[in-house]
Specification:
The complex is a heterodimer of chains A (173) and B (199).
Chain A (H helix, E strand, L loop, with lengths): L7 H8 L5 H13 L1 H18 L10 H13 L11 H18 L12 H15 L1 H6 L2 H16 L1 H15 L1
Chain B lengths: L7 H8 L3 H23 L2 H17 L10 H29 L25 H15 L3 H12 L4 H8 L3 H25 L5
Bound molecules: zinc ion.
Zinc ion binds next to α3 of chain A.
Amino acid sequence: MHCDGPPIEDLVAWLDGELPAADAARVAAHVDACAACRREADGLRRSGELVAALPRATPSADFAARVLASSRAGAAPRRGRLLRLVPAAAAAAAVAAVLLWRAVGPQRDAELGVLTASEERDIAADLYLLTNLDALESGSADELIGIVDDLDVLEAAEPEVAGLYAATSGDVR
Amino acid sequence: MPDDDPDADLMLRFRAGDEDAFAELVRRFQGRVVSLAARYVGSAADAEDVAQEVFLRIHRARSTYEPTARLTTWVHRITVNTSLNALRRRRVRRNVSAEMPGRDAGSGEPPEFADADAARPDEESLKVELAQVLRRIVDALPERQRTALLLNKYQGLSYEDTAAAMELSLPAVKSLLTRARVNVRDALLPYLESGTPPA
Ligand SMILES: [Zn+2]
């Protein structure tokens, strides 16, 4: 289907105006002379144009005002947050939950035994969200931000989580 | 800060604590942030929730902003990350709800992206149908292909800015964009030829 001319990456970059001038001239000359590449380029161009033309959401008229009001509220120290777990403790609890799930969960199998560190971190984050489901559903911006903050900490805490895992896994397995 | 950044001055004022600069930043980026978020989370209402979170994160993180990055790549990076987090939350909630009768999970399919064209009949319907098919095709792309394609083609970021926003190398982004374009083209071909949406 594709000829021995320009690699398809160059064809796409040419369509996108992302090739240096000399390369662009070379690709243009080839496409001019090669019907197969012309057809290829037409389809690729169209796929880009269609994605560019996907519908756009328009923010509500009061969107900016709501953001500014929240940012002013958020600038003050947050009070009354629903989440009282210290992030490290939350991570530990989540890892413990993973381990417990592995030990007694109905789906314990070979698949679960080979989770990568990043998969474990995802599970820990999911479990953390799960334990804070009510806060998520109540949906106030302040609480959501708190959860996101804690998640960020959790996601940044890979070595810590891995360490906790290493420290406790021997007992469970 | 790159001196070709049209938002450079705005960002400097914002970093220095100028709240008017933040208001200007929100006005300047709100359309792009809400539109991109909507491509991930589906409905305009959910997209505004995500966008609000994006701007609050920007507000809180202003001091950590690296002046070496263009403001637009930074805003886009935060928008993508926040949108993906929102999708993950939705997935967790849905998984939990499926096992807990009484909790309203919503359906498995994300709500149709509401847009002004959707209500128009007849001559517009083919366009609307094509947009829906295309949305499903883009949604089905591997995560990084989808993000690269949306940043480059939908948001109009250059390859270089797309790479910066995704924290990837330029060759990696070129490769992702090529695969994304080929995948979209191949998925659309049968539809464009026969008028039948791909299964
Ligand atoms: Zn050729």
